[in-house]
Design brief:
The protein is an alpha+beta fold. The chain is 20% helix and 30% strand. The structure holds iron/sulfur cluster.
Length: 74
């Protein structure tokens, strides 16, 4: 499943990395959400590919994001 984060709209609420810490993390420099390194596509921090076993928690994180900036695409 493809995942992207429109990071410019992130409010650093922490919901995504609390909900799915194996996939999302907080960027230490700008405090916004980013994708964990092992799941990034072409090394881009806002684009990733979620493995099957993480797809449920990634979808939960996307649903719970208060500003709805996490997109998923099968
Ligand atoms: S849930 Fe949304 S607003 Fe909150 S940290 Fe994650 S991407 Fe940012």
């Amino acid at each position: 499943m493809k995942v992207s984060i429109d990071r410019i709209g992130c409010i650093s609420c922490g919901s995504c990395w609390d909900t799915c810490p194996d996939f999302f993390e907080q960027n230490p420099d700008d405090s916004f959400s980013q994708i964990n390194e092992e799941f990034r596509v072409r090394g881009i921090i806002a684009e990733g590919e979620a493995p099957q076993d993480l797809s449920d928690c990634v979808i939960d994180a996307a649903d719970l994001c208060p500003v709805q900036i996490i997109r998923t695409e099968i």
